[in-house]
Amino acid sequence: MPITTCVFDAYGTLFDVTAAARQAAAEPGREALAATWQKLANDWRLKQLQYTWLRALADAHTDFWEVTQNGLDYALEANGLDGDTELRERLLALYWELAAYPEVPAMLAALKAQGMNNAILSNGSPAMLDGAVQSAGIGEVLDAVLSVQDVGIFKPHATVYDLVAKRFGTTPDQVLFVSSNCWDACAAAGRGFRVAWVNRSAEPMDRLPWQPDIVLDDLTTIPAFAKGA
Predict the structure, then answer these.
(1) Containing H/E element for 73?
(2) Phi and psi at residue 138, in whole multiples of 5°?
(3) Were 156 and a residue from 78, 100, 105, 187 both cysteine, which residue would form a disulfide, CB within 3.0 to 4.6 Å?
(4) Taking the mean position of all CA atoms in its chain, how far away is CA 170?
(5) pLDDT tens, 41-55?
(6) Measured in whole angstroms, how far is the alpha carbon of residue 166 from the centre of its chain?
(7) Is the pTM of this model over 0.85?
(8) Which residues are catalytic?
(9) For the domain with range 19-95, which CATH number is right: 3.40.50.2300, 3.20.20.70, 3.30.530.20, 1.10.150.240?
């Protein structure tokens, strides 16, 4: 079946999750953050993800915004910055307006020109995702923004990926799912989607029962792959 619908993870795939720490580190008076912002950004993202997995396993779902704050609090303490409450508030504010990767607007516009449905499928809460979409200016080239809030459990639970069929009436082989998280890409492949893993950091493949169809450096060639798949 030809691909009719392209579905994207949000954080780390369309939106640069390191942007908040990088931008704050460049502001005057942030010398302490500037010295460690890359590690802080990595710690923040890793704990944010780990907390979603642990909460899914423990049946202790919460809003993604709470998980994001919990991850930041861990990262600030791990990097000796937990006493700076103003920095905490600044980083959280910046997270609501994360920059999209440079190729994202043109890539989504090209998919729309090909007649594709475009959607986000994310752990993010609707309010967080709306903030990111509006900040990036990509709302007009998206047909849906799907959140795990509708099923009350985080990825990679199977019910999350099933939201795509409920919204678009597609079969799995009509969907191209795109994520920068290998575990997310693999789980989507396990649901029958065709999958692209955007491996921006040249990481090894996760050892899971499923694998993506293609591994890319960025999102630039997604329209060509979707058209030819």
Answers:
(1) helix 64-78
(2) -115, 10
(3) 187
(4) 22
(5) 999 999 999 999 999
(6) 20
(7) yes
(8) 9
(9) 1.10.150.240
